[in-house]
Design a protein that fits this description.
212 residues, mainly alpha, Arc Repressor Mutant, subunit A, globular
């Protein structure tokens, strides 16, 4: 009598890609928090253990699904270590370094181009930014409300991605041609203000209040 084998089902050569396709669908539809490994495994037609075998964690699966070239959990400790007054500079330099790097640069360009052209890719990129970046920045900032932290982070993102689109995607001169340090020097003070400065809407003048 032949004993039935137990344990993880052997994967086919395309199993990993099937899992990634299922993950993209679930993350796009339900967001990071709304998608479970079990749901993704069911959609891919595999055992959840096989998902963990290939990707280790749900977070790693999410990064692989959108083609993220970096692990924010590995990058953020280096950004937050140091003088808080120079936080904006460290963020800008790290961000531009990812685009400039010959390994990570092509991957992040491809991800952003896909997000610009495709609604599902845009949803995935927004979800990645919200769950893997915004949450970490809000947690580290500590002060203020979660809503204020999210506003600060989105302002930082608007600055960084605006520069990246102009420099690396549209390649607008002279921004596309100047040294990285020139961009860091120009952009870092604005990012620092978004992180630690006053971003609250100004109170209307008394005359405006009385006329309302």
């Amino acid at each position: 009598m032949t004993r039935r084998r137990t344990g993880r089902r052997p994967g086919r050569h395309d199993t990993r890609e099937e899992i990634l396709a299922a993950a993209r669908d679930r993350f796009a539809d339900g967001g990071y928090d709304g998608a479970s490994v079990r749901q993704i495994a069911t959609r891919a037609g595999v055992d959840p253990a096989l998902v963990y075998h290939y990707f280790g964690t749900k977070e790693s699966l999410f990064r692989a699904a959108i083609g993220a070239p970096i692990d924010p959990a590995a990058v953020f400790p280096r950004i937050w270590a140091g003088d808080p007054a120079e936080l904006g500079e460290r963020i800008v330099r790290t961000f531009l370094g990812i685009w400039e790097d010959p390994t990570t640069g092509p991957a992040v360009r491809a991800t952003v181009r896909s997000a610009v052209a495709n609604d599902r890719s845009a949803r995935l990129l927004r979800e990645f930014f919200a769950t893997q970046v915004v949450r970490r920045i809000v947690h580290e900032l500590g002060d203020g409300t979660p809503e204020e932290g999210a506003l600060r982070t989105s302002l930082v993102a608007s600055q960084l991605f605006g520069v990246a689109l102009a420099r690396y995607i549209l390649q607008l001169p002279p921004l596309a041609d100047v040294p990285v340090e020139t961009v860091v020097t120009a952009v870092a003070p604005t990012v620092q203000r978004y992180l630690t400065g006053d971003v609250a809407a100004p109170e209307p003048p008394p005359s405006a209040q009385s006329n309302g």
